[in-house]
Amino acid sequence: MRKKRTKKIYVVAATMTSARPDKDYDYRTYSAKVFFEALDKVNLKPEDMDMINFAYNERAIPDTAVGPMMSEFLTGCKVPVIGISQACAGGGVASYNMYNLLQSGRFEMGAVVACSKSDIFYSMETASGNGNYNDIDFNLGLTHMMYSSLKEDAYKQRYTPDSLDPAIAWAKQDYWFGQRNDMSLNYKKEMPSEDDFNDTGYVGYRARSASGKSQATCLIFVTEDVADRFEEKYLFDIGMGMKPPYFGQHYYYPTDTHKDADITYQPGVHLASEEAYENAGITVDDVDVFQVHDLTPYDGFMIMESLGVCERGKMHELALKGETSVTGKYPTNTDGGAIAFGHSSVGGDFSSKIVENIAQIKGECGERQVKDCNIALAHAYGTHQSVDVVAIIRREDNE
Amino acid sequence: MSKDFPEIIPRVETYGTQRAFRYKDIRYRLKGSECRGCKERYFPAREGSLCPKCGAREFEDYYPPKTGQVEAHWLDNIGYPASGYTDGFQRSIVTIRLDDGLHVVSEVVDCEERELKKGTRVRMAFRKHKREETGNFTYGYKFVLDEE
């Protein structure tokens, strides 16, 4: 049985590269850039870290010893580095692991460095199965692109069969935020046209779904034992949930937590959020801003429903009403989300949302700023939602 | 190297013929598993694992019905065909609920996407899959419309 949270864990520094990198670095250099920037922010040295988790994507970075590689590159072999590869949720899984390491009492400070930078020539889709059960599904020509699309089409067919309007409303909201975020892939860019949004083929798919990018992020975590040394700190709580990796088993898996699910409901999100809410001592109603992993608008609907924001099949109505806007009841993806900020997989899909949430809590987001933002939620999933991570971040006085 | 084996033998482990052969029943006959404890059924076969429902670790081979209905479908037309399938572009990717309730993800062939909707009856067909890295073709399950 998991025990209740015993220590407060804080984020004291969070850094990321822009979603529009101007130079083509290797993954080590990308990672070092954010790591040293984060350390400099809080006057720490690499050897002050007790442990570093390095989240990466094994289908993009073929080095077989990323742990030692990054230990040498970031700390001169002074600090152990553990490589964690859990697809797009990697930064979140590495943070979950760090959170629990620090809870153990043996460590006081640690970093989660995450990087998505392809160091191989072949595209990820070509080079690997890029899904699960590769020995079965990949031979059949199935990849995670197809799992995601099946999932979103199932939602569409069930709840919004006659209209793309809710999906377009969600995507447009992402673009509105992304156009105003100077770190985003779509900063100051034009929004796709109405024709593009309404297209039912490739053009529409591109307009309404995520664009990939390379990115690196770094989060520095400390326990309450040493938190007084830092002026700026944010309470951090997290939960993680799993779902069966074979896509067919996403229907009615025979366990208490999954048996009522199908592919339009995400029990992993539900499990992760329950754990995060419990650790933080809050409910979904306390959350002021949401950052969710929306590779498509339908992803966004399903995740928000599974977080407990509304009943199943209702989020598309809230999106149409503008409730995900900066003045709406559930401001969502104020950085632009995966659709407009960019989808960087393990490098940013979790950690860049923490950076955005801290900026929201500090009130630094300009036009994107959510009024009275005190408690912020970040979600990421990996491998067609077989792993979900949900984190809550807030100021100390909002505990 | 030794006197008996003067040549360096590289260790190569790809998706090879041996593994394709070992798993052929899953691809050829939709082989799944039935828990000996609670009789819960799973696809694909999960020998060596545990039953998520009751925790038992013993399974018997189980071959589900080869017919079912479309639960969700999607036309793969977005420009990222999987390696080995670039000539088969555009494909109808489906989740199928077999007649015993198990769900399988596959492709429906010999039909147009517009013929598919939730509830469309399909049956398993034996078709060519992707080539192994050794160059051999593998074969296995896909689905076609069940006209009867």
Given as residue ranges, the uncertain stretches of chain B (5+ residues, pLDDT < 50) are none
Shape of chain B: flat
Number of domains of chain B: 2
Give the topology string of chain A: H per helix, E per strand. EHEHEHEHHHHHHEEHEHHHHEE
Please name the fourth-level CATH homologous superfamily of one domain in chain A.
Thiolase/Chalcone synthase
In short:
The complex is a heterodimer of chains A (399) and B (148). Chain A is α/β, with parallel strands linked by helices and 399 residues long.
Structural commentary:
- The complex is a heterodimer of chains A (399) and B (148).
- Chain A is of the alpha/beta class and 399 residues long.
- Chain A has a domain at 9-123 and 214-218: 3-Layer(aba) Sandwich (Peroxisomal Thiolase, Chain A, domain 1), CATH 3.40.47.
- Chain A has 14 helices and nine strands.
- Chain A has helices at residues 27-41, 66-75, 90-103, 124-127, 134-138, 144-159, 165-179, 194-198, 202-208, 267-280, 297-306, 315-320, 337-340, 351-362; strands at residues 9-16, 51-55, 81-84, 109-116, 215-223, 234-242, 289-291, 375-382, 387-394.
- In chain A, α1 (27-41) packs across α2 (66-75) and α6 crosses α11.
- The relative contact order of chain A is 0.19.
- Chain B has helices at 17-22, 24-29, and strands spanning 32-35, 41-42, 59-62, 67-76, 91-98, 103-108, 121-131, 137-145.
- Chain B starts with 16 loop residues before the first helix and ends with a strand.
- Chain B folds into two domains: 13-24 and 66-148, OB fold (Dihydrolipoamide Acetyltransferase, E2P); 31-64.
- Chain B is flat.
- In chain B, a hairpin with a 4-residue loop joins β5 (91-98) and β6 (103-108).
- Chain B is mainly beta.
- Helices cover 8% and strands 36% of the residues of chain B.
- In chain B, the strands form two sheets. Chain B has a five-stranded antiparallel β-sheet.
- Chain B contains two helices and eight strands, in the order ααββββββββ.
- The interface between A and B is large, with 39 and 47 residues.
